[in-house]
Structures are given as C-alpha cells and as structure tokens.
Design goal:
With 334 residues, the chain is α+β, with helices and mostly antiparallel strands. Helices cover 41% and strands 23% of the residues. The longest helix is centred in the C-terminal third of the chain and has 21 residues.
Length: 334
C-alpha cells in the first residue's frame, strides 16, 4: 500500500497569466501558495490482474482502455501499468471549487504510481508530467500553475516563458509575515461548484480576440503578480488587501460567467463589513472566496459571510509539496 498526498493552492497574485492563450504570446508570472488541504491517492497491488478504481464512483475493469476516468486512464498508460492495481482517491475539499484540486489529484496520482514502480522523479518532472497529461493529452484549457504549486508547495513565484518553460522561485517571506497573512486571510465556500473549462475557454477566447481590452487586463494582472511578491517580501501585508480588490476588478471582466449577482452581493457584503479586498479562487463562477481583513475587522467579515450561508475554511500554508505519506509496498509485478 502506498499513500500519496499533494496540497491544493491559493493563487495570491497574477493568477490566470499561466493560461496558454496569454503566456505563449506574452509570458506569465504569478505567486501561489500551497495550503494544508490535500488530495490523497492510494495505490495497492491486487491479487488478481484486473484494475479497480474508487473515487466518486467505483470502476473495476480488465484493461486500462476501459477506464472511464480520464486522468486515471492516461496516468496508468503513461506509466506502463496495465493490470493488477487498485487505486483510490479522497480529498479534503470539494472538486470544482477553484483550489486546483483536479491538477493536485494528477500530481498525487503520478507520485503514487512512480513510488509503486520504485522510481525516483524530481519535483519538476512530476509537475511537467501532470501538465503533459492534462494539457497535451487531454486538451484541458488550463495553465501550469496548479500542477507546479502542488508539486513544489510553499509560497512560490512562477515565471511562465513563451516556449512553455517554467521558472520556480521561493518567495522570501519572513515567518512572522506568513503568520500574519494566515490570520488576515478569510476563506469561505460559496456552495457553488462549477467546471472551470467553460469559463477558461471563454477567457482564452477573449484574450485571443482582445475582447474589451482583455490583453491589457491580463498585463495588469501580471503586474499585480510582481507587486504581490514585493508586498510579501517587504512585509507590507495590509497593502495586499487593496491589491486583491484591484485583481478582482480586472479579473471579473474577462468572462461573462466569472461572476453573477449573488457572487457580487457576497463580495459587497464582505467589503461593507470591513474586508480590504477579495476575490473568487480559480476561474471564478463559484467555489471559494478569499478576503483580506485586518484583525479589528476580521470578526465582522466572518459573521457577515456566515450569516449569508457561506462556510469558512480554516487553513495553514503547506511548505512540503507533493509527498509519499506512507509506503508499505513490498513487491511489484507489471
């Protein structure tokens, strides 16, 4: 039995500039943070030769090609595992909520399969393999942020080159600033699950056609990514709240499904309660809100959101990235 885990993430600044529709023309830059909410994947050698999968549904098949779950199927094919394995997945947070859980699952799965085969892979290789499966093989309209931050962990800056290369840099944040950021960020679940694909496809088309100056908005969001790093490294933590508000003001206009009247009402209620800024995680349209509030306004924002039916998420930052949490694997036949 092998248990693999990988963390989901918060995009702190510059989110979306990793999308191919933008980064391949202009290059992208963002700062993301892994948090202590995980996707777990277990791998176990079966006595019989078929394949069993357990996630939100259960599959038992005789051949890899018969697997319905696309990521399970392609990850097994990529690793040359065709029989005699049982895999399961559980997660600390719901899927389709803007925390990158799909890519996190891919990272955790690949790490488990490499451990199953007794192979060592670097963190960068793990991230790139996840990107290859999701973007190149499955054709998802996503960038590389989620795979890389899940693999590397920490509070990390990523530069996305036009040729697809990714440069990874740890953001030099002092421990006391990390503690203050954890305290001042409030995360709430809107209760709305949505597929990111539709929003991202529309956003990508807006960028390609430059609808409503979409490219200029993305340039501004990238600038906010650089400013996020400066703010965090200089410890100017309250400035981050205002930056969040500016980020959301630009992002919400990139796609028609990015927000709606209910989401806007939640956001305005948080601002009226004292939040300095906020945004929806991920592609938008639902999922988790992030708000920044100073200690004196934190309780008011908390009550404003919970009274509207939003569920809070307590968190800490994760600095480990993808890990094999347990390995009791003794023998292997493929």
């Amino acid at each position: 039995m092998i248990i693999s885990r990988a963390p989901v993430r918060f995009s702190l600044g510059g989110g979306g500039t990793d999308l191919p529709s933008y980064s391949r023309e202009h290059g992208g830059y963002l700062v993301a943070a892994a948090i202590d909410k995980y996707v777990y994947v277990g791998a176990h050698r079966r006595f019989v030769d078929n394949i069993k999968l357990a996630y939100s549904k259960t599959e038992t098949v005789d051949a890899v090609e018969q697997i319905d779950h696309r990521i399970f199927r392609e990850a097994l094919k990529a690793n040359g595992i065709h029989k005699g394995i049982e895999l399961f997945s559980v997660a600390d947070v719901p899927s389709n909520t803007g925390l990158g859980s799909s890519s996190t699952f891919t990272v955790a799965l690949l790490n488990a399969l490499h451990a199953y085969k007794r192979e060592f892979v670097t963190t960068e290789q793990l991230a790139e393999e996840a990107c290859h499966i999701e973007i190149d093989v499955l054709g998802e309209p996503i960038g590389k942020q989620d795979q890389y931050i899940s693999a590397f962990g920490g509070i990390t800056a990523f530069t996305f080159e036009k040729d697809g290369r990714v440069h990874v840099e740890r953001v030099d944040v002092k421990p006391e600033v990390v503690d203050e950021l954890e305290m001042n960020l409030l995360i709430f679940y809107s209760g709305i699950e949505r597929s990111a694909s539709g929003v991202l496809k529309e956003q990508g088309q807006s960028i390609k056609s430059n609808t409503d100056d979409a490219v200029a908005r993305m340039h501004k969001i990238k600038e906010l990514g650089y400013e996020t790093r400066r703010i965090l490294e200089q410890g100017r933590i309250d400035d981050y709240g205002a930056l969040l508000h500016e980020h959301w003001s630009n992002k919400r206009k990139l796609a028609s499904k990015m927000t709606d009247s209910v989401i806007d009402e939640h956001y305005e209620a948080a601002i009226e309660a004292g939040a300095l800024g906020g945004k929806l995680m991920g592609a938008g349209g639902g999922g988790f809100f992030m708000f920044y509030a100073r200690p004196q306004e934190r309780r008011a924002v908390y009550h404003a959101m919970t009274s509207r039916g939003l569920r809070p998420l307590r968190f800490g930052f994760d600095f480990d990235g993808a890990r094999i949490a347990a390995n009791f694997h003794r023998s292997l036949e493929i």
